[in-house]
Specification:
GO terms for molecular function: aminopeptidase activity. This is L-aminopeptidase/D-esterase. It holds the Pfam family Peptidase_S58. InterPro entries: ArgJ-like_dom_sf, Peptidase_S58_DmpA. This protein has helices at 79-89, 123-131, 212-217, 243-258, 285-306, 316-320, and strands at residues 14-20, 25-42, 49-50, 63-70, 94-95, 100-101, 106-108, 150-151, 161-162, 164-171, 177-184, 189-191, 198-200, 232-239, 261-262, 272-281. By secondary structure, it is α+β, with helices and mostly antiparallel strands. It has one domain (7-320): L-amino peptidase D-ALA esterase/amidase, CATH 3.60.70.12. Strands 1, 2, 3, 4, 7, 10, 11, 14 and 16 form a nine-stranded mixed beta sheet that branches. It has a three-stranded antiparallel beta sheet with strand order 13-12-15, covered by helices on one side. Strand 5 (94-95) and strand 6 (100-101) form a beta hairpin. Helix 1 (79-89) packs across helix 2 (123-131) and helix 4 packs across helix 5 (285-306). The longest helix has 22 residues, at 285-306. The radius of gyration is 18 Å and the shape is globular. The relative contact order is 0.21. The mean pLDDT is 94.
Length: 322
């Protein structure tokens, strides 16, 4: 079996991206056409989401057909409607007697300050991303929901750097496969947990990255308005999980963000993660959750290292690989 080192290594999972590289916004679709058990965990205090209440274990529907990750702030939630249309045309969804209703939870990040704030992911872009979904390698960095993502805004946008989209996967000897995909648009800086090196963050006048906590300590109020950041993503596995167990995995996956983003889950972030399970392998929730945190951290690093600088927002590559 081919290994792509991304979330599509998980059986039943495909990924499609669409973006506007002039307006610097886009969306990413994680497709599970045959359905996947799904849970979610929202940790940031400024989220923009759709259908997350449905994923509560107390509620009826326990399988989703896609996850939509989008830029455009709350406007970008419209992209999920295009994903629904794509799935409905192919007969994928919850059967309701008179047809199907595709279940497409979504989360958005704020990128309106980066490109053209009047251009946002819409139904057409969501449909386009879904139609491109496939299993295999796909580009990271300035693609999909990561197209307009930025990092290190603790001192304002003028000192921020470019974020992006990243993915990773791991294979285990018992047949378990776990993958993650994430669009990194954090207020805080990104650190490599293996070395402690700051890869991207808020820059001082000399272009050197300083700790976000230092910036925050020097100013009584954050220079950003609420909801202007947010890291969104999903983990997936081929484990046999219930919806309650998937919610626990989504919760544990946030540890991957906490290991790489400083600070994370702030009042200015809407950090949201989904957890999908396509089934086939018996594995403990603890294993799946711990592995999900590991691959999520790897995906965050992949996003930052793959990002390309744009006007006003240099990238990790610009600072460390000139």
């Amino acid at each position: 079996m081919n290994r792509f080192n991304n979330i599509t290594d998980v059986p039943g999972i495909k990924v499609g991206n669409a973006e506007d590289r002039h307006a610097f916004t886009g969306c990413t679709v994680v497709l599970a056409e045959e359905g996947a058990v799904c849970g979610a965990d929202v940790r940031g205090s400024a989220p923009g989401t759709r259908e997350t209440d449905l994923l509560n274990p107390l509620n009826l529907v326990d399988r989703v057909h896609a996850i939509c990750l989008s830029g455009g702030s709350a406007y970008g939630l419209d992209a999920a409607s295009g994903v629904m249309q794509y799935l409905e045309e192919r007969g994928h969804g919850l059967h309701v007697g008179v047809g199907v209703v595709p279940i497409v939870p979504a989360a958005v990040l704020f990128d309106l300050s980066v490109g053209n704030p009047k251009v946002r992911p819409d139904k057409q872009m969501g449909y386009q991303a879904a139609s491109r979904a496939e299993r295999g390698r796909f580009p990271f960095g300035n693609v999909g929901a990561g197209c307009g993502a930025t990092i290190g805004k603790a001192a304002g946008y003028q000192r921020a750097m470019k974020g992006g989209l990243g993915s990773a996967s791991r294979h285990y000897s018992n047949g378990l496969i776990v993958g993650a995909i994430v669009a990194v648009n954090a207020m805080g800086e990104i650190r490599d947990p293996s070395t402690g090196q700051i890869l991207a963050g808020a820059r001082d006048d000399d272009g050197k990255i300083r700790s976000s906590l230092d910036w925050m300590a020097e100013q009584p109020l954050n220079p950003l308005s609420g909801g202007t950041n947010t890291t969104i993503g999903a983990v997936a596995s081929n484990a046999n999980l219930t919806k309650a167990q998937a919610c626990k995995v989504a919760s544990m996956a946030h540890d991957g963000l906490a290991r790489t983003i400083y600070p994370v889950h702030t009042m200015y972030d809407g950090d949201t993660l989904f957890a999908l399970a396509t089934g086939g392998v018996n594995a403990s929730v603890d294993l799946v959750g711990a592995a999900s945190a590991e691959v999520m951290a790897e995906a965050v690093l992949a996003a930052v290292r793959s990002a390309e600088g744009i006007d006003g927002f240099p990238s990790y590559r610009d600072l460390f690989h000139n």
